Amino acid sequence: MVLPPNTTHPEGGTITSAKSQFPANIAVDTYGGKVHIEWDADAPVTPLGQLPFFIQFLKLGGRFDPWVKDCPLTYFSNNAPEKVDVLGSLFLSILSGHKRYSHITSLIADNVNPSLLGMNKVVSEDSARRAVKKIEEEKGVQWMQNHLHDSCKPLLRTPWILDVDTTIKPLYSHQEKAVKGYNPQKPGRPSHTYHTYMMANLRLVLDVEVKAGDQSHSSYSLPGLVSLIKGLGEDEKPEFVRGDIGWGTDTVMNELEEIDQRYLFKLKKSKNAMKLIYKHHGLGQWTHVHSGWEAKEDSLKLQGWKKERRVIIVRRKLSSSSLVAIESGSEDCKQLSFIDGPEEIKVFEYSVLVTDLDDDLVSLFQHYRDRADCENNFDELKNQWGWGGYTTKDVKSCRLMSRMIALIYNWWNLYVRLALPGQHHEAITSRPLLLTGVGRQTKHSDQKKITITSTHGKQEKLAGAYHRLVTLFNELKMIAPQLTSAQCWSRMLEQVMAQFKVKKGTADPPHLNCLT
């Protein structure tokens, strides 16, 4: 008697592969004629075909491996993912411009780049979210602060300016420390405040603190600022600290004077500041500092100040063709009144700066005018790098993710400056040029090969960038055995600084006037 073969799956319980879920072949009618569509779910391709160059940049500089190794994330389960898989998944997500943990799902099918980072797989969004929540906050903050400092350390030995500012992150659910505070774009909306300390001109973030929405004043940033400066070596400290009117207070200036740190801030137009402007308005002898701008200096001691300080009065005459109007009233009922008078009427715009620097008026004006670039940093970080996303109910995860985004943002900015010297390229420009592109991996005789197809229109610019990168990487690989990772990183940043020049503008920044 012959027995029938055993069936592993009874009728109705057949397993279907992921590949068979797609239609085998579809004919699609287009304006270019009929096209036959097929799916290949297992093909070794990636949309980030140019990422291997960035990975080599991080490997030669010793950035990614130490960051993963130092992470205070510990698992005790045998089924838990490895640290490199978790951090690598977050790294790829942030670099791709994602804003939510759920966007990590779009990377799971990438079977090319994860292995190049030493990963086994891309973890799920839940695994990534739980991993960030699992990191102890104090150790996690110290871990991120150390790597933020190390990524910029070679650059801190050159003269640099420390920009301090705060930006608002609106929240739409029930998050820890989501409080209504100063929020000009969305008044009444709960928010977090991001207190940020940046290296000016190079657009690098040294640290960021996430606080409640009603803690936007400089007094909440001051402890972090003083701690950051004290943690720097004597040859690493900034030439001066620069901030807006929120920082021009006696408390802030006293703290900085005690640690012998120079500063340049803007003053609020208080009663005594207005008197000073009135005093100098009719005296003449103004110094021309920029196209249309004039300045004078004096000393001032406001009420509550412990001593007199040097102040710079800056003004410009508004064009006679400008239509000047005053808006008054509430949100529901606004009134607009036009200023009308004789043809020879002169309208001036005034600002007052306070400093303990010894620089001349032209240099001080230019120093503060360059602060407008700080607002561009926030725009890029929030809209192109996910600072407005990766939101969770606990504020601890937000604090760690904000620093993680800042670190990867720094790495990418330095890489782009190395490839495309001369000016800063925001992510919306640099990612399509230097990151995205179809990459297909093939393997023959244990040799991996990735064929990249870029659809970007600036192929000549792209070829020049890779010629620079490959030349530098090859030189470093030849001498790498004789150098430490820190020395390799310093050499790459030397190339960044060799090409970087601080450009003093000749016209006001578009859409932004930093002195108003």
Describe the structure.
With 516 residues, the protein is of the alpha+beta class. It has 15 helices and 17 strands. Helix 6 packs parallel to helix 12. The relative contact order is 0.13.
Compute the number of helices.
Answer: 15
Mean pLDDT: 87
Unreliable stretches? 12-19, 501-514
Distance between the termini: 98 Å
Largest sheet: 10 strands, mixed
Shape: elongated
Q: Strand pairing plus helix content: what structural class? A: alpha+beta
Regarding quaternary structure, how should these chains be classified?
A: single chain
Give Rg in angstroms: 28 Å
The percentage helix is 25-40%
* DSSP E strands, number: 17
Strand content: 15-25%
Q: Outline of this structure?
A:
The chain has 516 residues and is α+β, with helices and mostly antiparallel strands.
List the helices and strands and how they pair.
Blueprint: E1 26-30, E2 33-37, E3 45-46, H1 51-61, H2 64-70, H3 83-95, H4 113-116, H5 125-134, H6 137-152, E4 161-170, E5 179-180, E6 190-199, E7 204-212, H7 218-230, E8 240-243, H8 250-258, E9 263-266, H9 271-281, E10 287-290, E11 293-300, E12 309-317, E13 325-329, E14 334-338, E15 348-355, H10 361-369, H11 373-384, H12 395-419, H13 427-434, E16 438-444, E17 447-453, H14 459-479, H15 485-499
Helix pairs in contact: 1-14, 6-12, 7-8
